[in-house]
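Researcher: We plan to redesign the surface later, but first we want a full-length starting point. Tokens attached.
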């Protein structure tokens, strides 16, 4: 007879030995011990750090001039005057460091955007924030006479902020609020509007066209080491702000009412998150040009590996973002030698299929 407490009469599933009332002995194999979540998360963090180190080594060694790993380490540790040492130290080290900074910034910005909007396809490129920064740079070049990062970085911040506010205002109007689909449509409309505005400026201003054409391709090539010193304070400030919001982002994931019940100010969380994402996106775009889809794919990969807790997702995204940028840059160098494919083109080849998959999923298109 089935045991009334368990609904099962199988030995080892909660039944008793006949006539004794004693629990039956389990005869099946012992269950395998699950790996503790913290240990598994730490393992993924370590693996991601190793992937980033490999990407850094490839970025320093691979290109139109191949440099052996031993020569790379020798150039980094001991300097030297050989041609290989000069290539590594003068050209590839700044390029690699800039890729690390830009990749971390875009990945963190995408993570916080998805968190504050609860939208799985939120990303600086998709929502028009990167295009807003581009418009700011174009206006600085054409109308303010800016020629350096110091001159147009504030314009990039302003453009990114205005674009993000505009997209959210359009998407949240009417019934239903800012659903994922409405945010994506508003972002697409904003991208088209700002792109046409940019084209109108550069086609009527030859000087702006010459400078903007070099910048707009979204590439790490040709960026000098002085840019690193100009953007790292902004990236550090944005990263600290975003990382400090981990608990707040977890609360927002539960819904606005739950976040309020947990003692969080929902409006302030969204403002701070938008501010952090704007600073990170504006600085990254001003330095390397618009690079899309890094902020889209990396947060989803990070959540798949370590779960949804942002105290783990944010640091992992900061490791995977640079790895994605550097590996895309390396592939772009060797795809059609001696020419180079810009890193923005390579990330788009990865990101567009990823976006299509997300949109087709029921969870990404439901409101």
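Model: Full-length starting sequence:
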């Amino acid at each position: 007879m089935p045991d009334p407490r368990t609904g099962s009469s199988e030995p080892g599933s909660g039944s008793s030995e006949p006539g004794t009332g004693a629990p039956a002995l389990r005869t099946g194999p012992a269950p395998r011990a699950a790996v503790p979540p913290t240990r598994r998360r730490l393992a993924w963090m370590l693996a991601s750090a190793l992937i980033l180190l490999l990407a850094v080594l490839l970025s320093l060694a691979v290109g139109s001039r191949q440099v052996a790993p031993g020569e790379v380490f020798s150039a980094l540790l001991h300097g030297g005057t050989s041609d290989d040492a000069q290539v590594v130290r003068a050209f590839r080290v700044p390029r690699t460091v800039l890729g690390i900074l830009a990749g971390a910034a875009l990945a963190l910005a995408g993570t916080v955007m998805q968190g504050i909007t609860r939208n799985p396809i939120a990303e600086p490129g998709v929502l028009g924030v990167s295009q807003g920064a581009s418009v700011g740079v174009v206006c600085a070049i054409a109308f303010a006479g800016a020629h350096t990062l110091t001159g147009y970085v504030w314009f990039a911040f302003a453009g990114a902020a205005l674009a993000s506010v505009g997209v959210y205002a359009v998407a949240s109007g009417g019934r239903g609020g800012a659903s994922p689909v409405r945010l994506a449509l508003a972002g697409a409309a904003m991208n088209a509007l700002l792109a046409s505005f940019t084209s109108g400026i550069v086609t009527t201003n030859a000087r702006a066209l010459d400078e903007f054409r070099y910048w707009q391709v979204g590439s790490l090539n040709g960026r000098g080491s002085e840019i690193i010193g100009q953007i790292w304070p902004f990236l550090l400030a944005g990263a600290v702000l975003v990382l400090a919001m981990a608990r707040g982002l977890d609360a927002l994931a539960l819904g606005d009412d739950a976040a309020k019940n947990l003692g969080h100010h929902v409006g302030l969380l969204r403002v701070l998150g938008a501010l952090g994402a704007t600073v990170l996106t504006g600085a990254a775009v001003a330095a390397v040009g618009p690079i899309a889809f890094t902020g889209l794919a990396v947060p989803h990969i990070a959540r798949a590996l370590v779960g949804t807790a942002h105290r783990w997702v944010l640091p992992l995204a900061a490791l995977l973002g640079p790895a994605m940028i550097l590996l895309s840059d390396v592939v772009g160098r060797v795809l059609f030698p001696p020419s180079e494919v810009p890193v923005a083109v390579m990330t788009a080849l990865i990101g567009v299929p990823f976006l299509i998959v997300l949109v087709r999923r029921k969870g990404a298109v439901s409101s």
